[in-house]
Amino acid sequence: MSDVQNTLASSASLTGTSLHTGEKTTITLHPAPVGHGWKFKRGDLPDEPVIDAHCSHVKTVERATCLCEGAVKVQTVEHVLSALYGMGVDNALIEMDGNEPPIGDGSAQPFVELIVKAGVVAQDAPRAYYAVTEPIHLETRNGSLLTIVPDDKFRISCTNVGPNGRFPQFYSTEITPCIYQKEIAAARTFVYYEDVKPLLEKGLIKGGSLENAVVVRGDSVMSKEPVRYNEEFARHKILDLVGDLALFGRRLKGHVIAVRPGHGPNTELAKLLTKRHDQVMAMVPPSSTPKGGDVLDIHNVMKLLPHRYPFLMVDRIVGFEGENKCTGVKAVTINEPYFQGHFPGHPVMPGVLQIEAMAQVASIAFLHQQGEDANARIGYFMSVDAVKFRKPVLPGDTLFIDVEVTKAKRNIAKAKGRCSVNGEVVSEANMMFGFLAE
Ligand SMILES: [Zn+2]
């Protein structure tokens, strides 16, 4: 998958019947600028209001995902969002002349065809990913389980089982535009006859027919055309998951393991991801985005420091302040090797490693200050004093390591260091280093 944002090359429209109202609706996908994300526009309402495709706007999740902000409502948004996410389109304005997209054949195929017709173009900005760093788990009372574990790709493994254990199915896949188009997009909506019968009677699904859903009655399957895949139900659940997780608003790196997912738990998971993301962002100062020569990413950190796994205690330098001050960040996860023994069942980051983190950031501050010929030198610890450990550092914490070089000669330096988590100091120390040619 490309690592830059994509939008559509042109606008493209599709007209059809919508599921709940039974009315004819036209949906038009338009190109949108970098950072725009996905938004819905109600072209039929006065002032043509726009609503963000974000989980904070989720209103109802019965049978379909509906978004609402003020008086603006759009319903059954999951299939079109799924197609946009799945096909790698990051920015698009979705214009509709009603409150619901056409249902088509109950799959995301019509939207995929629309995207292909419009064309997909790369934009001049990197994509924002949210990489899951520790497991996230959600469980509902009626038996839905959703877990996300770290993975360097976006994958979904889904188990679906109908009422009374009918049609148990499993499907697992990575989501890329190519796989999505071939293996997921065409999987149709399926419903259980006993669930839709009362809705049909109440007139709640006016546009529903065997042309846009597979109906399961007892142990048999009724639909206009034969089953498209052996695991069509599990694949459609994955299609819905992609669309509902799109409401998180960022692309995911993680493996979603879902048992009996549904719009309720799916959108809850999107909300949980938003909460986690906001917590992390609250800890990272705005300067954390690598820019100019101010900030060092892990590659630059490794050019300056000889330390390597498992002893590299800095992930990134987020800022230099003047000549002497430097701030580094270390994400502390349960995957750190030292948690295996420190202590089993009660993981706490060793204080000495926090001092090591301060020393490594101090070395970077010193080498940065020395400029040009710094690369060829290594800092050695000579002494450390005034050490205080104030709070335990736990898996999931982001360690901010602030260092100030207080004295610097050619071969010797002194520095004050401080580690904090969520704005609270967890440890501090005064350090002295000697620098030797490598
Ligand atoms: Zn669906």
Explain how this protein is built.
- By secondary structure, the chain is of the alpha+beta class.
- The protein has two domains: 279 residues, lpxc deacetylase, domain 1 (Ribosomal Protein S5, domain 2), CATH 3.30.230; 140 residues, Thiol Ester Dehydrase, Chain A (Roll).
- It contains eight helices and 25 strands.
- The strands form six sheets. Strands 11, 12, 13, 14, 15 and 19 form a six-stranded mixed β-sheet that branches. It has a six-stranded antiparallel β-sheet with strand order 20-21-23-24-25-22, covered by helices on one side.
- Strand 2 and strand 3 form a beta hairpin.
- Helix 1 crosses helix 2, helix 1 packs across helix 5 and helix 5 packs parallel to helix 6.
- The longest helix is centred in the middle third of the chain and has 21 residues.
- It is elongated.
- The chain starts with a strand and ends with a strand.
- The site of zinc ion has 5 residues, from helix 1 and helix 5.
